[in-house]
Amino acid sequence: MPAISLAPHATPIDELSRLREAVGGGHAPRLLMKRDDLLSFGGGGNKIRKLQTVIAEARAAGGDTLITCGGLQSNHARATAAAGAALGLPVVLVLNGEPPRTPTANTRLDLLFGAEVRYVPNREARVPTMQAVAEELRGAGRRPVIVPIGASTATGALGFARGVAEILAAGIKPDVIVHSTSSGGTQAGIVAGCRLFGLAAKVIGVSADEPADELRGIVRRLIAEMATRLGVRAETIGADDIDVDDTQVGQGYGIPTRASTEALELAARSEGILLDPVYTAKAMAGLIARVRGGVFRREMTILFWHTGGQIGFFA
Q: What is the pTM assigned to this prediction?
């Protein structure tokens, strides 16, 4: 499918031998990490993979301006702003929250990449505001394209699925892939990618916010839409095998838990790797809970897909 090249380099897969020792010693499985925090564009993160196909689709339809939304520290908003800068496309970001007196982390980068930012009071105001901005731009003769939050569309998920090929190219066949899930596109992409590239790995998405049943429905819908695009049955690319763990959500989105704080500190102090407190720390907490609970056997290989987001740590 059409794609632009924002991050042409495969990300590394690191061995986490010291973390393995810290959480389970000789009884722990082999632990690996897919380092999408090191994607070579715009601060990295999983959104880059999805934007490469989503923006290609937008440009093919004649779009000349990108509109998207998120919270104040949205990684997706920052990645979209960077993509617009690199491609010469104006970007309008609709962010919920009070305008920061001193922009930091992602909000600072949004402005550095040249995006126009519109602030709204809450999540519910984001979509109608994006639609209003689109109408405003059409009235000025522009051809805006609204990019859904997280670029979590069937197109974006198919873009992410292509990343699974990097695991096989590295000669690695994990038994389980654990990652953070929220808007569903990354999980749909990994699940479908494993089926499309013949990788027999169980995929576990650890929710950062939504209940498991709700997220399973979102991922299943995205996979069904992907299947339609590919001309195959949804079950062929994993619609019947969606595993979402919502035990690490705690008090909600962006609120650390004791387990996620421990996971963040363990990754930093054993491997020198920075997770983020919103997404990847909770996902790592889910992995650690399974190791300690004996869910993963010693002879297994577990791959943690680091989806980035560490810039928000400095907000």
A: 0.96
